[in-house]
Amino acid sequence: xxxYVAYDQSxxxxxxxxxxxxANAFGIDMIAALDAGIDRALRDAKALVITGRPGVxxxxxxxxxxxxxxxxxxxxxxxxxxAAMLKLYVHPQPVxxxxxxxxxxxxxxxxxTGDHRIGVAGDYKIGLNEVAIGLPLPVYGLELxxxxxxxxxxGAATLGAAIYDPDGGVAAGYLDDAVDADGLTDAARDVAAxxxxxxxxxxxxxxxRLRLGTIARIRGAE
Length: 222
Known about the structure:
46% of the residues lie in helices and 19% in strands. It is an alpha/beta fold. It has one domain (5-220): 2-enoyl-CoA Hydratase, Chain A, domain 1 (Alpha-Beta Complex). The strands form two sheets. It has a six-stranded mixed sheet, with helices on both faces. The radius of gyration is 16 Å and the shape is globular. The model has no long low-confidence stretch (mean pLDDT 97).
C-alpha cells in the first residue's frame, strides 16, 4: 500500500503491517499511511489487525522532528498523531494489535486504542517513557491511559514512566496476552476472525458508548 504500511486481507480480516525499516517511528508519513489503511479496512473488511516489523511495533513519535527546530512540523505531527489515535480508539470495527516487540511512547498509546492486544513474549519494552525523556504526556494520552490501564499501574505508568516487559505489560493493561513469536500472527487473526462475527452495528454502537466519556474529557481539555 505504501513504503510504510503494507495492507493484506484474508476473508473479512485486514492486516496493516507498519515497517519503515527502522524503529517504526510515528512520523507524518507513517501516520498518513496508517490512516489510509484504516479507511481501506473500513470499506473492505470486518475486522482490523495492526502489527509491526520483527522486534518493534512502534518506537514513538519521530524524535528527529520532536527535537528539531521546525515548530510547524512538530505541531503537524502531534496533531496528526492525536487524530489517528482517537480515530482508532472509536473505530467501528474490532481493532486487534499484534505487538511484534518494542512499543514505547506513542507506540504504547497505539496499544491503548485497540480492542484486543497480543504481544510477543520476550525481552521487549512497552510503556510511556515521555516523562523520563523530558516530554509531558498530552491530555489525550493520559485519558487513554486512564481508560485502558489497570488503575493500580496508572501512576507508575504515566508519572513514573515505567517500562514493562510483555508479561508486565499484560498486568499493567497495555496488552491482553503475550505469546511466543511463532504464534503471534495466528493468535491475532483468530481473535479478529472471532470478533468479526459479532453484529457489526451493535459492536460499533456499544464501543462508541463505552468510550464517549473519554473522548468528552479529551475534547473538554482542548
